[in-house]
Every structure is written in structure tokens, then in C-alpha cells.
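New here. Your pick:
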Amino acid sequence: MTSKLVHILNAGRTPYREGLNLQRFISNQIIENKWKYQNVLILTEHEPVYTIGIRTNNYNKEDEERLKKLGADFYKTSRGGLITFHGPGQLISYPILNLKNFHQSVRWYVGKIEKSIIDLCQKYDLEAEITKDTGVWIEGKRKICAIGIHVSRHVTSHGLALNCNTDLNWFNHIVPCGLEGKEVTSLSKECKQDVSKDDVIPNYIDSFEKIFDCQTVNIDKEEVDEIKRLSKE
């Protein structure tokens, strides 16, 4: 069962660059088999940032400067998907998993990510679903969770962004994930009450364990701080 043991690294609120460095450091350690951890689930929340994926080619320097003037960072990334926003009030989950310990299929992995969020939404009496478009949706028209992943040598990175009590006005300045005419929503908006990231984390971990058929254990704060320090070197 140790191969399906997932260590949870709660990074707190981080700038996007720090989150990228953390992912790269951990994924490299796992790929090179240098570490005592075989699978790590990074949980974080970012400072405001707009990110674009590898398929985005219609955002130029002018667009980048326009978005930065709103007070957000802007990054091009190696994940799949188009432009989206990350910021306070979102639960960001970066599973750094060695798929050799689970199932060596990217399609299987994406399906499990989607099902974990659908299962989580059921805990809030929300009927979430997938559509022909990426992510997880409420009633097929309101996007509650963005998904964009990367896989290298069977090790996953990037992941999902679940809107908990996010300020949705940030999405008004872009076409989220390139989808015209679709809304973005949050758990708070759908539940008509404040639902914070910290409220959601225990439920998310429960759904993650259930859907991935794994066990989780927390990495203690001192070690988290040391891993964060090493990732900056």
C-alpha cells in the first residue's frame, strides 16, 4: 500500500512562481527516484495571477500588460488548457503523482481528477458534471473548477483550481479557458453562503482518497518549510 500513499504538502498562500518551483522540485525528485516520497499532493492558494497554457497563442504583450495593471501576475506555463485566473479564495491542488503507482494512463488520471471534484461537490448538495469542455461544471454551463495538467515520465504536475469563495470579478477581464458565453461560479455562490478554502480542504482530501483509492498523510510544517526552501535554490 506504500506505493499508493500520498503525502499532503499544505503550502499555504504562495505566489504563483513559488508554486511552480515547488512543483518542479518535487516532480524532479520523484522522477529521479531520489526521495522518500513517491506521491505528493500540494495544496495551496495563489496571489492573483493569470496563467496561460501551451495551447494559448492569442494573448500578446499588450494583453499581458493590461492584466498586470489589474494587480495580478501573468505567467506562461507548460500545462494544458487556455487562459485562466488563480487567486485568493481558490483551492489549488497540484497532485505530483507517479502514475506507475496508480494507472499509467493520462486519460484515466484526468478522469479521476474530475470525479474527485464531482464527489466533493456532492458533499455540498451540488450536482457537478463534465462536458465536452474541460473542467467541472454546474448544470453544464457554470464552471466551478478548472483543470490543466502536465505529465512527464509518468509523473504528473499542475492540476486543478476550485473556486471556493473567489472574487469572480477577476474572470471578467478574460475569456476563461477560451470559452465564450460560459459563466464561472464558486462553491460560495452556488451554496449561497461563504465556503472558504480551509473549509473545503478536509472534504477534498476525503474525496481524493476515495476516488484515487489511496491513503494520505500530512507532511509536518517544519519539513514543508524545508522543502519550500530547497525548491527556491
Observations:
- The radius of gyration is 17 Å.
